[in-house]
């Protein structure tokens, strides 16, 4: 299996070109392009959050600020594809705890209380316990992973996440030989999550997701704590969320409060609600349609009504070279 993740040393400060430093943020903002231009700026330039243009700065907690100067930028890139503007990535969301409409998370997620934050770790692990977010992040280096995000609803974005490999975090908990799957749970807080109070919601809470152990240990799977060079906005799953770029977006569970290592395949939220429509694996696959729509193409945001940006969907969302080996011998039509 070819793993396309460059070593941590692959991107050094010497690669920061004078042009990148020279061009001010304002000049980039003036560029007549819908694309946000990524620049590689040294740590000191982060003071105003200007790694990307048009980013609303977030108030970084100490554990995040401590890591900022040593971020390994562009640990994974998407070559020629444009990064989705910050505004689209943070105002067009799925986070049903805050409501069913795409603008609801942006409007409502500010209510979520993210400090202090703990993650309960249990099940088949040598080191169960309730860990503070700081405890989980402190031993790790933050990496930037620029990934495609493909929603099962057939829209997609390209998002520069900041995070840590899930595998490194799982190893800290010392999984036992019986650990075959990882189960994740989102915060349950109806008082601050209006979608959880709604009697119209078809989902049962807390939101749950899961991965097979080898998927969870794959180097492309990360826990994100930031995006666009800043701390994660609440509507994107602050303070810590999963990102599994080769699977449909619903697998990438937000605002995680519990990680359980288990021996049996866990029940997941969307699969429990409509098992004929949403499977446990949910690998992006242009050949296996959703029962109600085709998955062959996708709408890459921003995509206007009069200038739709339609792309062919790629097998495993473009990460086949890295992950296809995980599914060797499986029938992806029945194991969707
Ligand atoms: N807890 C929780 N996690 C969630 C969701 C949700 O409703 N609740 N929606 C999922 C879906 S369907 C998608 S497409 C992605 C969207 O991530 P984004 O809003 O950061 O782009 O989050 C996923 N994670
Ligand atoms: Mo989604």
TrEMBL record:
Residues 113-270 form the Oxidoreductase molybdopterin-binding domain. Pfam families: Oxidored_molyb. It comes from the Bacteria. It is an enzyme of class 1 (oxidoreductase). SUPFAM superfamilies: Oxidoreductase molybdopterin-binding domain. Part of the MsrPQ system that repairs oxidized periplasmic proteins containing methionine sulfoxide residues (Met-O), using respiratory chain electrons. Thus protects these proteins from oxidative-stress damage caused by reactive species of oxygen and chlorine generated by the host defense mechanisms. MsrPQ is essential for the maintenance of envelope integrity under bleach stress, rescuing a wide series of structurally unrelated periplasmic proteins from methionine oxidation. Heterodimer of a catalytic subunit (MsrP) and a heme-binding subunit (MsrQ). This is Protein-methionine-sulfoxide reductase catalytic subunit MsrP.
């Amino acid at each position: 299996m070819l793993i396309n993740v460059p070593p941590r040393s692959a991107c050094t400060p010497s690669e920061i070109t004078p042009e990148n430093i020279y061009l001010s943020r304002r000049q980039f903002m003036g560029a007549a392009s819908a694309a946000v231009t990524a620049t590689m700026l040294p740590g000191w330039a982060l003071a105003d959050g200007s790694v990307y243009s048009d980013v609303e700065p977030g108030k970084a907690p100490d554990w995040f600020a401590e890591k900022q100067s040593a971020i390994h930028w562009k640990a994974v890139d998407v070559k020629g594809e444009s990064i989705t503007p910050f505004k689209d990535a943070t105002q067009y969301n799925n986070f049903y705890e805050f409501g069913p409409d795409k603008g609801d998370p942006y409007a409502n997620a500010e209510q979520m209380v993210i400090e202090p934050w703990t993650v309960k770790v249990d099940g088949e692990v040598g080191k169960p316990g309730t860990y503070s977010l700081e405890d989980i992040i402190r031993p790790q280096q933050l990496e930037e992973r620029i990934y495609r995000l493909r929603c099962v609803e057939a829209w997609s974005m390209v998002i520069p996440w900041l995070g840590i490999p899930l595998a490194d975090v799982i190893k800290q908990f010392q999984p036992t030989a019986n650990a075959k799957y990882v189960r994740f749970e989102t915060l349950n807080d109806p008082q601050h999550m209006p979608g959880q109070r709604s009697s119209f919601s078809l989902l049962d809470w807390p939101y749950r997701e899961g991965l097979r152990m080898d998927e969870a240990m794959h180097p492309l799977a990360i826990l994100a704590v930031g995006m666009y060079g800043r701390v994660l906005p609440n509507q994107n799953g602050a303070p810590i969320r999963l990102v599994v770029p080769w699977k449909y977006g619903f697998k990438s569970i937000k605002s995680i409060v519990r990680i359980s290592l288990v021996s049996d395949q866990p029940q997941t939220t969307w699969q429990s609600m409509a098992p004929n429509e949403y499977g446990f694996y949910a690998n992006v696959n242009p050949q296996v349609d959703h029962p109600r729509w085709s998955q062959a193409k996708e709408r890459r945001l921003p995509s206007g009504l009069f200038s739709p940006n339609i792309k062919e969907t790629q097998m495993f969302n473009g990460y086949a070279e890295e992950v296809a080996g995980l599914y060797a011998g499986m029938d992806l039509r029945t194991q969707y």
